[in-house]
Amino acid sequence: MAKITRLQVGAHTVQVTRKRIKNLYLRVLPQDGICVNAPLRATDAEISRFVLSRTDWITQQEAKLATVTPRGYQDGDAVPYFGKTLMLRLLPRTGRAHITLHGDVLELAIRQDADEPARKKMVDAWYRVELYEAAGAMLPAIERTVGKRAGELKIRDMKTRWGTCNIKTAMITLNLRLAEKPAECLRYVLTHELCHLHEAGHGERFWNRMDAYYPDWKRERKLLKQHS
């Protein structure tokens, strides 16, 4: 089981997650700040040296995050949808809220005094349905290619992973934000997670299977990172 701790490195507070991996991985996230995934036996000193060695990169990422304008879910705002851009249109409603897609316009009928969290909740609920349907439509062909079948399919709003696979139950969990990314990214993640039913880790045999089942996986992974 992963162990999460906090480590002070210079002026930075770093969230450290120790798990069964071989290498150190670093991310800068909007809500959690600097996050490091580390091997179980990694010492605080090793992690500190690793973070300090990436100081310039961390500064660049923090600068990028500072320039990002948060989505306010206001009338006329852009809503990403499987690689396309929809326009959000807010419609006043006194009864139960609902959301409908008309061409490139996403109509959200909701009470006029609804705040941003309420509007976001409605859009996310719509994303969840759309992503589940899209994944369900893609999955049979991918299962035939990989030679493994998924168990339960779940959707979660995850912060650090695009997908996970429980190798015991074959349950695949997808990041809700895949509904905002190009459809090719969803295909890549589904193929990736099904491959874990052959190979639990990310060793050479795992990537050989990805090469065989989805030759363009490197391009799609790069695309996914570009849209992160």
Strand order of the largest sheet: 1-2-4-3
In whole angstroms, how far apart are the ends?
A: 26 Å
What is the helix/strand order?
EEEEHHEEEEHEEEHHH
Q: Structural class of the helix and strand makeup?
A: alpha/beta
Annotation field: number of helices: 6
- Tally of strands: 11
Proportion of residues in β-strands: 25-35%
What overall form do the CA principal axes indicate? globular
Q: Would you tell me the overall average pLDDT?
A: 89
Poorly predicted regions = none
Radius of gyration: 20 Å
Level of helix content?
A: 25-40%
Largest sheet: 4 strands, mixed
Q: What order do the helices and strands come in, and which of them pair?
A:
Layout: E1 3-9, E2 12-19, E3 25-29, E4 33-39, H1 44-53, H2 55-67, E5 78-81, E6 84-92, E7 98-102, E8 105-110, H3 116-146, E9 153-156, E10 163-166, E11 171-175, H4 183-195, H5 204-213, H6 217-226
Parallel strand pairs: 2-4, 6-8, 9-11
Antiparallel strand pairs: 1-2, 3-4, 5-6, 7-8, 10-11
Helix pairs in contact: 3-4
List keywords for this structure.
alpha/beta; four-stranded mixed beta sheet; 11 strands; globular
Give a quick summary of the entry.
The protein is an alpha/beta fold and 228 residues long. It has 6 helices and 11 strands. A hairpin with a 3-residue loop joins strand 3 and strand 4.
Characterization of the model:
This protein is α/β, with parallel strands linked by helices and 228 residues long. 38% of the residues lie in helices and 28% in strands. The protein is built from 6 helices and 11 strands. The protein has helices at residues 44-53, 55-67, 116-146, 183-195, 204-213, 217-226; strands at 3-9, 12-19, 25-29, 33-39, 78-81, 84-92, 98-102, 105-110, 153-156, 163-166, 171-175. A 4-stranded mixed β-sheet has the order 1-2-4-3. It has a 4-stranded mixed β-sheet with strand order 5-6-8-7, covered by helices on one side. Helix 3 crosses helix 4 (183-195). It is globular, with a radius of gyration of 20 Å.
